[in-house]
Amino acid sequence: MKNPCHGNTTCLIDPKTGDEVCQCPFGRYGIHCELISACGSNPCVQGICQNKNETTFQCICKPGFTGNNCDISFDICHTNPCKLGLIIRNRIRN
After folding, report:
1. pLDDT (tens digit, 9 = 90+) per residue, 48-70?
2. For the chain, how many structural domains are there in total?
3. Which uninterrupted H or E stretch holds 6?
4. Same-domain check for residues 31 and 45
5. 49 vs 77, residue with greater confidence
6. Which residues is 65 bridged to in the sheet?
7. How does 41-79 read in b/e, with b if 16+ C-beta sit within 10 Å?
8. Within 10 A of 8 (CB to CB), how many other CB atoms are there?
9. Which of 22, 49, 75, 82 is at 20 to 30 A from 88, Cα to Cα?
10. Are residues 28 and 43 both part of a single domain?
11. 94 pLDDT tier (thresholds 50, 70, 90)
């Protein structure tokens, strides 16, 4: 029997229906795991990738990082966001 699943994914047989079901790994989707998601290559260096569609993604960056791929670090303290004489300390990176 030929495996209908793409990309070295696992083909399972549904015991109730006898249908072939592909178990897609991270980065693949579709009935036969034939589609590769935009997040499949893990483009977000310091963040979480969210698929917008199969070719577009958005990175949600961890605090202290910015850029399309969350690969640019910045010091939030540098912008001096505090008012009323309060002091902010950057504890993300030291």
Report:
1. 999 887 789 999 999 989 999 99
2. 2
3. none
4. no
5. 49
6. 73
7. eeebebbebeeeeeeebebebeebbeeebbeeebeeeee
8. 9
9. 49
10. no
11. very low
